[in-house]
Amino acid sequence: MNGLFRLVERIAGPLLRISLGLILLWIGALKFADPSPVVGLLHASLPFLALKGFVYTLGALEIAASFLLVKDFVMESAAIAMVALESMKVSARDGLAPRRVAA
Q: What is the DSSP string of the chain?
């Protein structure tokens, strides 16, 4: 049983890193396939960023971060870039204005 735990401990980190890299690659590639959903979200929350060029730049940055994660090259920088990109998406999706509560 200890051998199994040692094996799982040894491969868990690389498998998690590679799977996150592949997911980020997929998300970035989707921006090149059809940027209109992201442009619509940005237009609703941050209209000054609602440009196809900005969405393509986001996609390119996500793809670059995914390669950094898969190659295990500067892992901390790739993780920081991934968190920054995802937080931009969350703020764009949720909007910056406070929500109104229905009475």
A: -HHHHHHHHHHHHHHHHHHHHHHHHHHHHHHHH--HHHHHHHHHH-GGG--HHHHHHHHHHHHHHHHHHHHTSSHHHHHHHHHHHHHHHHHHHH-SSPPPPP-
